[in-house]
Design brief:
The chain is an alpha+beta fold and 449 residues long. It has one domain (2-447): Cytochrome P450 (Cytochrome p450). It has helices at residues 2-12, 14-25, 47-55, 63-66, 71-74, 84-94, 101-104, 107-117, 129-145, 152-168, 171-175, 191-216, 224-230, 241-255, 257-272, 274-285, 292-295, 299-311, 344-348, 364-367, 388-405; strands at residues 28-31, 41-44, 61-62, 126-128, 321-323, 327-329, 332-334, 339-342, 406-410, 418-421, 424-427, 432-438. Strands 1-2-8-5-3 form a five-stranded mixed sheet, sandwiched between helices. It has a three-stranded antiparallel sheet with strand order 4-12-9. A two-stranded antiparallel sheet has the order 6-7. The termini are far apart.
């Protein structure tokens, strides 16, 4: 019964659950939050303990058993579920498209999508960041990651994904993944049967895109799917269609709602702190033209993004890992079958690391450099997020594109609460904003006198 209660508490209000547990037990505590008959799950918030978790050799850990709840979402071939050599192989194939010069080519597409989504905004209009940001980030993934141009398949995939992800983010629907006994297919009218049907429709569209792309064999394409299709591992092997599909779905689920959630927090926080907004605008104006790669190098804009993800991290935890044998962390032995969870949220809210941790203070990232286990919004070690650099790139460019076009203000300035939406945490209000002014120079406003 305890495991059921703790699981439901974590599902319904994870930040409250973590805050209360840390206040009661400190940096390290053990819960049972993986459904009925859950194994012991140990949360770590101390940087040294997190470092020791990351240092445990992969052969001593079982990632599949600790992440089984994600299998119906991501697919059996997802990098999230892989171990050992297979994980290393997939990581080596996935990393290159998200880094270096290849990523720079995505900047104009991110700008273009953002401007297109906001092109019909008018003065006096109320816009909800909860609706706008997922629209932008989904289109970025479809065009930059999937490489699908607007058209019939694009619109169908966008429609199916939006509807399914909206449902998955509700507590009831997401609880299906934590409780296998609920995963019974009694046809399309049953909750699990309905999910499987919709997921298959999405998979079929992705497979159709992969098949079409293999026939094209166009080496000039720079989207991430095309780059993954041409990538070869050390043995000269390419990814299978099933691997490609599962990686694309994983990238979508891990990079769509999460990035949209951070953008909601960014627009709320900078407009709740006028001094922060003024500094960002001043810094952007110093550039003249908003050249994407120059925007992403701006120090204060970067600090604002870092502080937002410290206060409200993209993910609350790193990849869980189950022990295959007894391991020792910070002088404590943990038996075989224990699930270890390096907790990003707890690390980011330690008063011993961050002065006034609940206060939004971007300046802290200009004044001090934090270690990789004190600040880890994208996880760390050999299981860190492959798309971290792309996500930061995207956040900055979406912000710059909107702030250069519009002057916005919060409709409601009352403090908001963090609430769970799917696998991320978003502001409770949905962040409705009023368009105060449209700048006539459009995207080039910051180059205007």
């Amino acid at each position: 019964m305890t495991s059921l209660i703790q699981t439901l508490q974590l599902i319904v209000n994870p930040t409250k659950f973590l805050d209360k547990s840390a206040a009661k037990y400190g940096d390290t505590f053990t819960m049972r939050v993986l459904g009925i008959n859950s194994p012991p799950v140990v949360f770590f918030g101390h940087p040294q303990a997190i470092s020791e978790c990351f240092a445990i050799p992969a052969q001593k850990l079982d990632f599949k058993k600790a992440t089984h709840v994600f299998k119906p979402l991501f697919g059996a071939n997802s990098i999230v579920l892989q171990e050992g050599l297979q994980h290393n192989r997939q990581r080596s194939l996935l990393m290159p498209p998200f880094h270096g010069d290849r990523m720079k080519s995505y900047g104009e597409t991110i700008y273009s999508i953002t401007l297109d989504v906001t092109k019909n905004w008018h003065e006096g209009q109320i816009v909800s960041m909860q609706h706008v940001m997922p629209d932008i980030t989904l289109q970025i993934i479809l065009q930059v990651v999937f490489g699908i141009s607007p058209g019939a398949r694009y619109e169908k995939l966008k429609q199916l994904l939006s509807a399914l992800l909206d449902d998955i983010t509700t507590p009831w629907y997401s609880s299906l993944f934590f409780f296998p006994p609920l995963q019974k297919d009694f046809g399309a009218w049953s909750p699990w049967g309905n999910y499987l049907k919709r997921k298959q429709d999405i998979d079929n569209l992705v497979y159709a895109e992969i098949s079409e792309r293999r026939l094209q064999q166009d080496d000039s394409l720079t989207d991430i799917l095309s780059l993954l299709m041409s990538a070869r591992d050390e043995d000269g092997q390419v990814m299978s269609d099933e691997e490609l599909k599962d990686q694309l779905i994983s990238l979508l689920l891990l990079g769509y709602e999460t990035t949209a959630g951070v953008l909601q927090w960014l627009f709320y926080l900078i407009h709740a702190h006028s001094d922060v907004k003024d500094k960002i605008i001043h810094e952007l104006k110093s550039l003249g033209e908003l050249e994407p790669n120059e925007v992403t190098k701006l120090p204060y804009l970067s600090a604002v993004c870092q502080e937002t993800m410290r206060l409200h991290p993209i993910a609350l935890i790193c990849t869980p890992r189950m022990t295959k044998e007894t391991v020792e962390i910070s002088g404590v032995e943990y038996a075989t079958g224990t699930v270890l969870v390096p907790c990003i949220y707890l690390a980011h809210h330690r008063s011993q690391t961050y002065t006034e941790p609940e206060k939004f203070n971007p300046q802290r990232f200009l004044n001090q450099k934090y270690s990789a286990t004190e600040y880890l919004p994208f996880g760390g070690g050999y299981r860190g997020c492959v798309g971290s650099a792309f996500s930061m790139y995207e956040l900055k460019l979406v912000m710059a594109a909107i702030l250069s076009q519009f002057e916005l203000e919060l409709v409601d300035r009352r403090p908001v609460l963090p609430v769970r939406r799917g696998i991320t945490i978003v502001p409770s209000s949905g962040v409705p904003m009023k368009v105060k002014q449209i700048n006539p120079c459009g995207a080039g406003i910051l180059a205007c006198p």
